[in-house]
Amino acid sequence: xxxxxxxxxxxxxxxxxxxxxxxxxxxxxxxxxxxxxxxxxxxxxxxxxxxxxxxxxxxxxxxxxxxxxxxxxxxxxxxxxxxxxxxxxxxxxxxxxxxxxxxxxxxxxxxxxxxxxxxxxxxxxxxxxxxxxxxxxxxxxxxxxxx
Length: 147
Ligand SMILES: [Zn+2]
What we know:
The chain has helices at residues 28-39, 96-110, and strands at residues 44-52, 59-66, 85-94, 121-127, 131-136. By secondary structure, it is an alpha+beta fold. The protein has two domains: 13-110, no CATH class; 111-147, no CATH class.
């Protein structure tokens, strides 16, 4: 029996909005999928996304861990970051080239645009007056097909 890692109460376990982008990419959802795959762990989810700068080019850095899903309430089915198993915490670096290959591979297998998951629509924002608003997906131009 190993010691269970004590959770740090001052640690932010809240997911952060992605702010990275140098060229309009990346797409947060695809980075979640990519980092989860690279973690090699079932149930692993990233909760922070950064763009790191380096002399060799910028890259994406994700931090996450295996998180249980909420089983009830309004967050049902979503990861509970506060209950993350911190022994599975990992930092994963992905270069834009690696990520583009991942996207191309995914789109080929699924025959769908990865940004909008084939819907042709992407999230544009939310406001009090209009609620959630969507616009034509900028990657596939609304076709839902691989861009
Ligand atoms: Zn699309």
